[in-house]
Inverse folding.
RNA sequence: GCCCGGGUGGCGGAAUUGGUAUACGCGACGGACUUAAAAUCCGUUGAUGGCAACAUCUUGCGGGUUCGAGUCCCGCCUCGGGCACCA
């Protein structure tokens, strides 16, 4: 065969034709059925676009092409996120101005993007570092500022001493700078913030109505971190100040033995006694040196200092000490907590270290799984004990095996009269086992409230169990009563045997085991209140409500919701970003730059390196800094901070359809028609930053009245991560980077796209395996040959038509579900079938070209042309399938005997159960199994399986 | 520690509501064509036993529910990702 498939020639040919005919440019004003297919724009920081980009864009483009064939007008724009730290750091390293390096990098990226064969509309490109774009970044700032959503605040920020800049919390990884891995320190600076916290609730609620991966919704939910609890005030002994605390476990308040406040808390100075002053100040200085993230490390041992002051617990009017400790975060809640060491692990650790009292106020509550309380039965309450009797010689435990019930228990009984638990234990041991020579060892913590239905007595029991450990001193025994002997027999077992015993009928068992074997720790779960005044006996849930009510009545507190989300700090003391359009005038204060003066252009300065004095490099450009006040006309100075890159990307999707219109950021009609984005594809690493910020800006714009939608991305899908061939993350240092261009040079864009999507599930990603790609090249060549042979323009065999219709259905469904790998597999099955067929007509081949076109757009276009078509395959309509033709006439029924497949019979679809049963009984293979048995049950799943149960 | 995902042949991976596990591809082995190779085509390929028909086992491990479990329930092991003193 001399006519070989030449991907280089064909792909180049069609890319040129498509560009010339503007095939992928939609008329944004006119077109009906708009579909906005967006993918996260690349960050051209210096290197080539990597395989991950190729992966993401291939999948997103296949989807977009499918939507186009399904009758939508698909707008698929692309651009460059070109401002920000990485681009600037790259420029510094390369020794060129970022403006120069970014221009070069964009050119490289654009060529790469073109070679992917996506439906990009390159006329609608955005470049975020271009004044024509960042004019709108500044405009977005002005809009948010106008509506009180941007503000300045002196605040401690994460400061990287190496990059000499402020970092967002998200850019600090384990206390180190994301980029250069220098230890991050804390520094107080006047910073710009967006009030994203105002939108915490709306951002949370909005998640319910959008089609995003569940895991991403959960990530955002956790990031926002809503928690409902109670806030209340405490008086301070001998001081007019009051101390507010926030807790989600107000039910544990009677276990509060001290209070902790954060070192930065303004109250610290006011309440610290003279005696403690020196020590407290020293402690404050020390913590200030540590970066917030490092301070928050759980590995660090807790430290703290007593202030000398006492708070008064409003519930019992007791005086409790106030400590300062850095395990309390100032910016969350009230910056102070009530410490309940008995029921909080952190407080427990702290109390142990500083020898503070630990008071229990919650006891565990267990409900027996096997015999839960029955409705209607009488409930009897009692104090009870369980004896864990151990023979120290062999470390075996004594168990009772019940005769009438399949139960294994410890020695159990009620506490009678005024006897104590030890006396009760000894008495029960003698009564139930006869052992008289036993020695008390210890009590396993406090009681546990156990609810169960006592089968042997026919009543519900609510028992306060205490477990006591005894040792057997000798085998000395008394005879036990006959009634007792009838109930159970004794068994000495190892802990291991006991653990494996499925009949252990003791819901408290796990608690005893934990207390016996593990270190003492706080009981942090919910339970029943004890030693809590009028709330004693209530469950945690009940108590939380009652106590909140009481606080409200008293006017010292009430229910309160807090969020972990912090305001978005977006000012950067760096050069390569959009200048914040604010002017400081001595007379008028901070004045926003009027809209008509935008953009505030980034001046071309020689030394763009960060200065490191808490000011950005722009501060040393007098031509930029010195200006006139827009209000009074007097001399004034410009803000020299620039904006975080995430501001640039928080609205770019709104700008794309309006690119070219320099008079407004958004054209109302176009925006209404094209937004919100119908499908957004990109990495999951952007969930808590970019995606959250974009949602915030959208919601703010909606409230301001600029747009008519409040969620930017209706549907979102993530691509998985493509790893190096060694299964590790690709990185320069590991030398395992694969550049998509190299692959495409060898096999072409069509094979690259198809292969990378065939490797596995789109959401999963995985290691790049260069070996398998040969299979895809073979597959495409097979298709090429299919069009090369003589096409008989006549009827197609019915079997081929079946195959074709099945493929139409499956490929379409799978693409819609982002299951590209199985869609390709279905195409392969179809192509294999067509290769074997004796006759194929033009119609079938035409449909094949359309089905193939999302994956291999160039090849599909070429073979489409070969069939004699003059229009583009990409302007066709996705074929419909014939329902009658997707079902096979014959079906194989599996015949199971007792759950095992013993035979398969071929029948016409729709054959009745009785007929199939007859056929099965006649089968030689089945007969063998039916000898000397009776069929007791027949299960028939139509057209699939017949299951016979025999006896 | 907490929250999400995963674990299926030699490898990448398929498997509607529980209903014939291993589709599709890679690799490997055998064969055809060829002087030879490449390309292509045909066949075999989960494991064990058996000449074979066939049987037994098999979806990380251990239990359970069911006529029937990769799929559901309970308890573990393990890998990846996210959060991490948030009271």
């Amino acid at each position: 065969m001399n006519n070989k498939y030449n991907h280089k020639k064909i792909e180049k040919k069609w890319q040129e034709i498509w560009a010339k005919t503007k095939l992928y440019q939609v008329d944004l004003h006119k077109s009906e059925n708009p579909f906005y297919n967006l993918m996260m724009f690349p960050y051209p920081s210096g290197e080539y676009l990597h395989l991950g980009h190729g992966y993401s864009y291939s999948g997103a483009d296949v989807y977009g092409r499918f939507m186009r064939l399904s009758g939508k007008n698909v707008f698929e724009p692309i651009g460059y996120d070109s401002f920000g730290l990485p681009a600037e750091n790259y420029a510094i390293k390369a020794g060129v101005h970022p403006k120069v390096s970014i221009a070069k990098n964009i050119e490289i990226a654009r060529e790469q993007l073109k070679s992917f064969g996506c439906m990009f509309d390159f006329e609608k490109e955005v470049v975020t570092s271009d004044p024509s774009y960042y004019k709108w970044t500044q405009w977005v700032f002005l809009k948010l500022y106008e509506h009180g959503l941007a503000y300045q605040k002196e605040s401690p920020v994460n400061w990287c001493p190496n990059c000499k800049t402020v970092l967002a919390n998200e850019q600090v990884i384990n206390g180190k700078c994301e980029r250069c891995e220098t230890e991050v320190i804390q520094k107080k600076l006047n910073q710009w913030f967006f009030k994203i916290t105002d939108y915490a609730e709306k951002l949370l609620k909005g998640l319910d109505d959008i089609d995003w991966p569940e895991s991403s919704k959960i990530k955002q939910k956790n990031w926002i971190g809503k928690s409902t609890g109670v806030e209340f005030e405490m008086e301070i002994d001998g001081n007019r100040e009051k101390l507010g605390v926030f807790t989600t476990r107000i039910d544990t308040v009677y276990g509060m033995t001290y209070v902790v406040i954060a070192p930065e808390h303004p109250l610290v100075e006011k309440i610290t006694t003279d005696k403690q002053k020196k020590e407290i100040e020293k402690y404050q200085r020390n913590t200030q040196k540590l970066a917030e993230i490092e301070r928050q490390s759980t590995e660090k041992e807790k430290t703290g200092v007593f202030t000398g002051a006492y708070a008064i617990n409003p519930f019992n009017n007791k005086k409790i000490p106030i400590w300062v400790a850095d395990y309390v975060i100032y910016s969350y809640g009230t910056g102070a907590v009530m410490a309940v060491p008995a029921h909080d692990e952190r407080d427990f650790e702290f109390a142990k270290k500083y020898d503070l009292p630990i008071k229990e106020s919650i006891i565990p509550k267990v409900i027996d799984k096997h015999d839960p309380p029955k409705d209607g039965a009488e409930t009897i309450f009692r104090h009870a004990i369980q004896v864990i009797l151990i023979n120290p010689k062999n470390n075996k435990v004594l168990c009772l095996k019940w005769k009438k019930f399949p139960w294994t228990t410890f020695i159990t009984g009620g506490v009678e009269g005024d006897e104590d638990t030890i006396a009760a234990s000894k008495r029960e041991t003698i009564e139930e086992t006869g052992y008289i020579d036993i020695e008390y060892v210890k009590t396993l913590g406090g009681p546990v409230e156990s609810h169960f239905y006592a089968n042997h007595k026919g009543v519900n029991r609510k028992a306060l169990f205490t477990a006591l450990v005894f040792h057997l001193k000798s085998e000395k025994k008394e005879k036990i009563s006959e009634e007792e002997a009838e109930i159970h027999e004794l068994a000495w077992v190892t802990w291991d045997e006991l653990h494996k015993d499925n009949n252990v009928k003791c819901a408290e068992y796990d608690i005893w085991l934990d207390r016996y074997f593990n270190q003492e720790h706080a009981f942090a779960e919910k339970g029943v209140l004890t030693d809590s005044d009028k709330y004693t006996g209530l469950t945690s849930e009940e108590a939380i409500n009652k106590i909140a009510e009481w606080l409200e009545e008293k006017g010292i507190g009430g229910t309160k919701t807090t969020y972990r989300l912090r305001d978005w700090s977006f000012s950067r003391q760096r050069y390569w970003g959009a200048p914040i359009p604010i002017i400081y005038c001595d007379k008028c204060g901070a004045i926003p730059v009027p809209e008509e003066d935008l953009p505030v252009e980034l001046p071309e300065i020689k030394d763009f390196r960060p200065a490191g004095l808490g000011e950005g490099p722009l501060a040393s450009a007098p031509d930029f800094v010195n200006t006139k006040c827009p209000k009074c006309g007097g001399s004034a100075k410009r803000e020299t901070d620039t904006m975080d890159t995430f501001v640039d990307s928080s609205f770019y999707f709104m700008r794309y359809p309006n690119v070219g219109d320099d008079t407004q950021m958004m054209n109302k009609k176009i925006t209404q028609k094209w937004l919100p984005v119908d499908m957004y594809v990109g990495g999951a690493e952007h969930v808590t930053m970019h995606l959250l910020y974009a949602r915030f800006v959208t919601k703010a714009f909606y409230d301001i009245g600029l747009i008519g939608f409040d969620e930017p991305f209706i549907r979102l899908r993530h691509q998985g991560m493509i790893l190096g061939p060694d299964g590790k993350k690709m990185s320069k240092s590991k030398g395992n980077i694969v550049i998509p261009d190299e692959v495409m040079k060898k096999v072409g864009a069509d094979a690259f796209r198809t292969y990378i999507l065939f490797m596995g599930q789109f959401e999963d990603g995985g290691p790049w395996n260069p070996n398998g790609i040969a299979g895809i090249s073979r597959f495409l060549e097979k298709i090429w040959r299919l069009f090369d042979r003589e096409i008989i323009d006549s009827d197609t065999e019915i079997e081929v038509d079946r195959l074709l219709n099945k493929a139409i259905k499956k490929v379409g469904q799978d693409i819609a579900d982002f299951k590209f790998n199985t869609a390709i597999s279905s195409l392969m099955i179809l192509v294999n079938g067509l290769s074997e067929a004796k006759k194929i007509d033009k119609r079938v081949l035409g449909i094949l070209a359309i089905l193939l076109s999302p994956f291999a757009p160039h090849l599909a276009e070429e073979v489409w042309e070969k069939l004699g078509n003059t229009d583009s395959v990409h302007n066709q309509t996705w074929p419909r399938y014939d329902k009658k033709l997707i079902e096979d006439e014959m079906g194989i029924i599996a015949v199971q005997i007792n759950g095992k497949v013993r035979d398969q019979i071929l029948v016409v679809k729709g054959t009745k159960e009785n007929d199939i049963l007859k056929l099965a009984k006649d089968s030689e293979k089945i007969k063998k199994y039916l000898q000397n048995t009776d069929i007791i049950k027949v299960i028939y799943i139509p057209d699939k399986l017949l299951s016979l149960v025999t006896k």
